[in-house]
Amino acid sequence: MTNSKKLIVEIENLHKAYGKEEVLKGISMSVSEGEVVVLVGPSGTGKSTLLRCINQLTIPDSGRVLVNGIELTDPRVDIDKARQHIGMVFQDFNLFNHLTALDNITLGLTKVLGMDKKKAHARAMKELKRVGLSNKYASYPGQLSGGQKQRVAIARSLAMDPIMMLFDEPTSALDPELIGEVLKVMKDLALGGMTMICVTHEIGFARDVCHRIIFMEHGRIVEQGSPEKMLTNPDLPRTKKFLGKISEIH
Amino acid sequence: MEVITILIPYILKGLNVTLKVTGIALSCGLFFGLILALLRVYGGDLLSRIIAQCLTVLRSLPHILLLLLIYFVIARVVDLSPFWAGSLSLAIISSAYQAEIIRGAILSVPSGQMLAARSIGMNRLQAILHVVLPQAFRHAIPPWSNEAAIIIKDSSLVYVLGVPEIMRQAQYYSARTYQPFTAYLTVALIYFLLTFITNRGLDAIERHIRIPI
Amino acid sequence: MSFLDYLQIAAPQLWRGLLITFKVSFTCLGIGLLIGLPSALARVYGPKWLRWIVTGYIELLRGTPVLVQLFLVYYGLPQFGITFSAFTSAYIAVGCNSGAYQAEYFRGAIQAIGSGQMMAARSIGLSYLKAIWHVIIPQAFRFALPCWSNEVVSMIKISSIVYLIAIPEMLYVAKELMAKYFNVFQTYITVGVIYLLVIGIITYLINKIEHYLAIPGLEVTKRSG
């Protein structure tokens, strides 16, 4: 992967164990600006853990994580400030249930970035429009469908002007007919040049917009490469077997 | 009946005190209960267990014993009036129960909410203040309504310290008129009205601030 | 005198007081059960007029302090010429009070079981009463157990109130000792420790019983009573 673009994410030899079970066994990788990376692999192989180690929602046992040149694994770094620039979208949406869609977005703007209310309001409406939900600004999460909730969640992260977005199985909890609307938003983001790391089974999405597919198994990176290579002619038979299986389903 | 014109005003003289005792107990209980709950949930393992033990002790003792203990032992040292000894004892007792109520409410907020709040860059305090507590608050109202009713009724216990609340007034009245049943029945009705209004009122508030689904 | 000397004198008396505490608590608990379970059943399955009466009883007794109820029976009833002994008054007042709370616990348990159980029981031909006895009550007991165990602890705490009508339970004995030996602090602390031990042991035993009676797969989450 030759590129003269700057590295947004650098991960060096990450280890993480839960009790006796080692979930990440020495992960090293990097992502350049504007690159869209898709992480695939069987469930429980540490993909979500890896994502959470990037924004330090999970603290790794050893190894380094650098985002935009700043070492997040250094305890002296202000992690809350760093997180303002990293967007995360969860499988369970995790929208703030006691706030409307609009307020879900303005909360970060006013309380974390200190924006004044009017500006925050305008910015939030802009993001809602971007994900196609401006008419739902006054709805509470409980009144929204799964796909709508996820789109609001994406808008919430985008409003913070992140330099990259982490997607943790964003469509896994959605009914099939709602997956499309979320994938469309994600595709538009990718085409717009956002740096993205996505854990997902949506091979169509990977084929269409991502630059690199990483196959993880048992806490290690097994193989990585361009979508064309990984999906049609990967080096390892294990990779072919797994990607073949999920291609069939999706 | 002269019962109504004489009895009721006489007993109502003590209502003022009953309400004050209840008010102090509930509000101080809320304040300390909130702090204890936050310490238990976010304060780390050791602190959480120490506090849990102390609260278990407080909840295992008869309320009247605690009242007497605090009055006869502590109040003599610090020179508290029976009113304050009673009110503060109830406050201490209530904070132990309210800590559990608030803690339960905080724990019922899904952990993903804290994750989401941290992921947009909020620090722990902001996340607790703006995301967790507002949701926990709504879950806490029904059990808190229960606790409020309990404290209203427990305020009758300060009678043993000689505090001139409605029980004491009833006792004086029955001593003078030999109509104890009427006196205590009136007191019972007053307590019933107080708990009834409190519960219905809090129910209404809970419905009003309910998050639409 | 030293604390240990004092304990030697006080212990037998406190022990007698503790036995009275148990006597009052468990009798009232039993009376409460006899009143509470039928009340709950009446509230869920009974005709409208019965539901009304039972609900009224429950609301009134839960909405007033047990102290007032005690005084109404012991000091109040003599106004009409009805006099009960201290023990009887305690049993009536505290027992009825407990009954009201237990009725609510059982009602919650019965409703948690769900109407499907009653439907299934009737559909295989069981009469109303038989269905209640063989299907509803066994499940209701298990659902109600966590709340009921709270009630046991509650009873032991509440029973201390009856010292005011001169029933010689632990707190009454403590007051007598204090009047004689003037060591208020030590006595109260001792009584407190005894209560803690007793309630600790009882809680432990109840947990064991809950464990023993648990039906696999029918999980009951402990709600704060």
Features:
heterotrimer, A: 250 residues, alpha/beta, 6-stranded mixed beta sheet, 4-stranded antiparallel beta sheet, 25% strand, B: 213 residues, mainly alpha, 9 helices, flat
- How would you write the strand order of the largest sheet of chain A? 6-7-8-3-9-10
Which spans of chain A of ≥5 residues are poorly predicted at pLDDT below 50?
A: none
Largest interface: B-C, 39 and 37 residues
What's the β-strand tally of chain B?
0
Helix-residue proportion of chain B = over 70%
Strand content of chain A: 25-35%
What characteristic shape of chain A results from the CA principal axes?
Answer: globular
Rounded to the nearest angstrom, the distance between the terminal CA atoms of chain B is 53 Å
Task: Using the CA coordinates, give the radius of gyration of chain A.
Answer: 18 Å
Note the topology.
The complex is a heterotrimer of chains A (250), B (213) and C (225).
Chain A: E1 7-18, E2 21-32, E3 36-40, H1 47-54, E4 62-67, E5 70-71, H2 79-83, E6 86-89, H3 101-112, H4 117-130, H5 146-158, E7 164-168, H6 176-191, E8 195-199, H7 203-209, E9 212-217, E10 220-225, H8 227-232, H9 237-249
Parallel strand pairs in A: 3-8, 3-9, 6-7, 7-8
Antiparallel strand pairs in A: 1-2, 1-4, 4-5, 9-10
Chain B: H1 2-12, H2 15-42, H3 45-60, H4 63-78, H5 82-107, H6 111-119, H7 124-154, H8 166-177, H9 180-208
Helix pairs in contact in B: 1-8, 1-9, 2-3, 2-5, 2-7, 3-5, 4-5, 5-7, 6-7, 7-9, 8-9
Chain C: H1 3-45, H2 48-62, H3 66-76, H4 86-113, H5 115-123, H6 128-158, H7 170-181, H8 184-213
Helix pairs in contact in C: 1-2, 1-4, 1-6, 1-7, 2-4, 3-4, 4-6, 5-6, 6-8, 7-8
Structure description:
Chain A is of the alpha/beta class and 250 residues long. Chain A is built from nine helices and ten strands. The model of chain A has no long low-confidence stretch (mean pLDDT 90). Chain B has 213 residues and is an all-alpha fold. Helices cover 84% and strands 0% of the residues of chain B. Chain B has nine helices and no strands. In chain B, α2 (15-42) packs antiparallel against α7 (124-154) and α6 (111-119) packs antiparallel against α7 (124-154). The longest helix of chain B has 31 residues, at 124-154. Chain C is mainly alpha-helical and 225 residues long. Chain C has helices spanning 3-45, 48-62, 66-76, 86-113, 115-123, 128-158, 170-181, 184-213. Chains in contact: A-B, B-C. Chain B binds chain C through residues 57, 60-65, 68-69, 72-73, 100-101, 104, 143, 149, 153-154, 156-157, 159-160, 167, 170, 174, 178-185, 187-188, 191-192, 195-196, and chain C through 59-60, 62-69, 71-72, 75-80, 153, 156-158, 160-161, 164, 171, 184-185, 188-189, 191-192, 195-196, 199-200, 224.
